[in-house]
Amino acid sequence: MSYPHLGLRDWPFRVVPEPQFCDFLADRTTLRADVESLLVSLENRPTSTIHLMWSWYGAGKTHTAFYLANLCTQKHESLRPIYTECPRDAKGFPDLYRVTAAQFSIEELVDAYLEQSTRPSGKATFGRTMDPDLSSALTQAALGERPLQILLHQWLLGNPMPRSSLSQLGVGARITTTEQCSSTLASIVDLLTPTPLGAIPMVTERKRIVWIIDEVQRVEEVSPTAQRSLLSGLVGVFNRCPTGLTLLMAYSGEPKEKGLPEWIPADLADRIGLEKTMLLPPLRSDEGRVFVHDLLAHFRLPEANDRGEYFPFEVEAIEALVDTLAKMGDLKPRTLMQFLDASLRDLEPRLRAGDITSITVNGLREALKEHSLTWPARRPKSDKRSRE
Q: Which fold has domain 28-280?
């Protein structure tokens, strides 16, 4: 939906990130470079890796995770992103496994299995075999009709099934334990990221699964038993996938420049190794102004480029809000968007009717008068800042 009276092609302030709108990062120049550098690195090495993204609450963690996933799809086609959240009140790794397994289509898995099973054999080597139950289930689904593929989908999700259905798939039991889940998921990764056998060509280009696990701080909120299951399951998948897998664990809290969260066990920390943690701290005042500028510029209609860098807000209004939030110690992307969204929703009808032509400092103060904001003293109108 376009808003010509606001000079915008869509509504810019989205407090809850939507994947299709997370195709850019406002400000955050260093973070943007870190993300691009990471993806280029992952394209050029086979070994599996674990990376951490540690963010203050509201500093843009989920938006950045969606941005990274979109970059994989748009610019790094050998990287296959999978986004999941650590479930609230998880009872263990099987809960995380289920929401992850649901990201893969049965058609994709069956096609990959058929491609792998019909490839010529290369030189015999020692290696890990596919989970036997998964291999049997894929074989039956590949040879059977649509109903068997539906059964395969239900089995992969660990749903209750009658014994007769398990027999049709040739499997011994439901997928319910941490060990079963990690083994099955690792086999899926292997299936979708096949290793070339010498000079034998591959129909499908090798892909790396980039498994983005958001809200990992929730492991602190579950029982000790569930926490051990969640973390040991992740280690189990990683250990079974020496190549073709990247875990990106994103979590909120108070970031640290050095050290890892206390809930990360020693075996997981050892596998993370020396990988640099991506940090998302609150914004400085200058960063806050650039953030709003970049955000509005991204949604700006071309014909409105001459209406002001912050239009429909005036420069002084944005500066006043940024300074206010900075002094309150709450200058984060989410907070900025919450206040800008609230003020624009309040004043948009007046802008549309032509009662006002832009949002001034006084207009912004009036629109946000019900919120506890300690506005700074008025200051002279400043010159336009450089946007280098």
A: Rossmann fold (3.40.50)
Domain boundary assignment for the chain = 28-280, 283-367
Q: What is the pLDDT of residues 232-288, one digit of tens each?
A: 999 999 999 999 999 999 999 876 656 788 888 888 888 888 788 888 888 999 999
**pLDDT confidence of 198, banded at 50, 70, 90?**
very low
What is the reported pTM? 0.86
Q: How far apart are CA 85 and CA 102, in angstroms?
A: 12
| Dist CA 20 CA 10 (whole Å) | 13
> Hey, what are 205's tokens?
């280009």
CA-based nearest residue to 377, from 369, 365, 388, 363: 365
Cis peptide bond N-terminal to 312, omega within 30: yes
Q: How far is CA 17 from the centre of its chain?
A: 10
CA distance 189 to 209: 7
Count of Cβ atoms closer than 10 Å to residue 206 Cβ: 14
User: Residue 130: what pLDDT?
Assistant: 85
CB burial string 123-161: b at 16+ within 10 A, e below: eeeeeeebbebbbebbbbbbeeeeebbebbbebbebeeb
